[in-house]
Specification:
Layout (H helix, E strand, L loop, with lengths): L2 E2 H4 L5 E12 L2 E6 L1 E2 L14 E3 L2 E9 L2 E6 L7 E6 L1 H25 L3 E6 L4 E5 L6 H17 L3 E6 L19 E6 L3 E4 L14 E9 L2 E8 H22 L6 H36 L2 E3 L2 E6 L6 H11 L5 E8 L3 E8 L7 H9 L5 E4 L3 E7 L3 H14 L2
Parallel strand pairs: 1-4, 17-18
Antiparallel strand pairs: 2-3, 2-8, 3-7, 5-6, 5-8, 6-7, 9-10, 10-15, 11-12, 12-13, 14-15, 16-17, 18-19, 19-21, 20-21
Length: 398
Amino acid sequence: MTEKIYLENPYLRQIDARIVEKKYMDNKYYIKTNKTIFYPNLAGGQPRDKGTINGVEVIDTYEDGLDIVHVVKDNIHSDRVELSIDWNNRFDYMQQHSGQHLLSSAFYKLFNGETIGFYIGEEYVYIDVNIPMISKEEIEKVEEFANKIIFSNFSIKSYIVEREDMDKLPVRKDPKVNSNIRIVEIDGIDFSPCCGTHVRSTGEIGMIKIRKVESYKGNIRVEFVCGNRALKDYTWKSDSIQRISMLLSSKDKDVYDRVEKLYKDREGLEKENRYLKERLYKYISAELIREAESIKGVNFILHQSMDMDFKELQNLLPYINLIENTVVLFGVKGKSTGQFILSRSPNLKINMKKVLEEASKTLEIRGGGSPQTVQGGCPIDSLDHVFEALYKGVIEKL
């Protein structure tokens, strides 16, 4: 059985130990030591520690019964080893995990909300609370309550109890084991069965900042950060607001109002732009109809090059197709490819898809569409031939 030093003293960053078992599998070495400070990955939901054994990087750590297995890529030749963990990574997880206990306790005490799931990632932490919905004011109340406990610097301790003693403790959730139950207590405020690493006092959590609350499977998911993560979160957001305020020449507290005004102004401009474009398309369509060539009673609008991009040409079609007995064929030469659109008014019965298929038998064409409208592309130097083939194909079907 591996002696789990991280439970006794999570602040210990380096220890000497002895290798008791080593196996080589899948190009990796699996090492058990008589004691360890490495926290196993996702034990109790907490991610693993990072660090080294005799300077060799530990790439994974996991539980194997009562033992802890350390996985390394390079062989360690001595049975006497030095285990060293990444302290910044360890302390970060301690802040997040202790903060999670405190925030879960706040939801439970204020709104009888039980934490039914939690996740500690490298960037953020979240808990799922069995409350169907919650207001912004209630979230602020939870956050304020949790941070008051942090600032009061209550002690956090852990100890082992047996199942028969559990009734004496107001635990928030039932333990997953029946003996040697480890309780993490926040000074009479919260009691929770847990095998994770925690700070000594709430003050070391630093602060808790709730970043986002959203509905999730009938409950709420609360995303938050603690300690150094909260500081980093504040830093980049503060920097962003300062840069935006400089860009808008306004005070940082006025940024939201200015952005909201810009957003509304943009919506108004977009609406006006759509209206003007519709009028423009109607005008262009009318001009094209007037210039159309009449063949067998059908108006042919033929343009191989217009001062419009392909998307705008597509937008013209609904207006042109309103005119009965009309066929339109547009061609556009890009930098390296040619594009085309062939369409007709609904009253004509020409199958444009068939026209395209027949032209594709002798020419290199990519495209498709419906019996009314087809579009596609071709090599730029063959656009003239494609244009001519489509035009002749339509004429033959009149």
